[in-house]
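lol ok so funny story. i was supposed to be doing the assay writeup but got distracted and ended up predicting the structure for this chain instead. priorities right. anyway since i did it might as well share w the group, maybe its usefull for someone
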Amino acid sequence: MEGRYNKNIGDWGEEKAVEFLRRNNFEIKDRQYHTPWGEIDIVAEKGGDYYFVEVKTRLDADLANNSAVTYQKVQKLLKSIRVYAYKNKLEDIGLIPAALVIYVNVKTKTIKFTFNVIY
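and the output, tada:
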């Protein structure tokens, strides 16, 4: 049951992430792109650069002790980016890994977005 709940929260978060990116002048190129190393949640383009966005949605209780994107996840994302770039013939453009964390405060019914490039 918990797995289905987490997937529902994740899917909802990805929809909110797409809305956030569009409001900030990103063009959505792909969603849930699968590679042998995992899934790229969102591929978006802005200013000629491609952003590969890992989306994490966190509820109140998760805020204090949850590392949003682990080292292992970053490594898988970087491999997935190389696959995407090769298959889509992306050359001579920026390929930027990023994380978009969505914090949901259930009590106040507010959402906070944190968008960071992953180095």
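The radius of gyration is 14 Å. The mean pLDDT is 89.
back to the writeup now i swear
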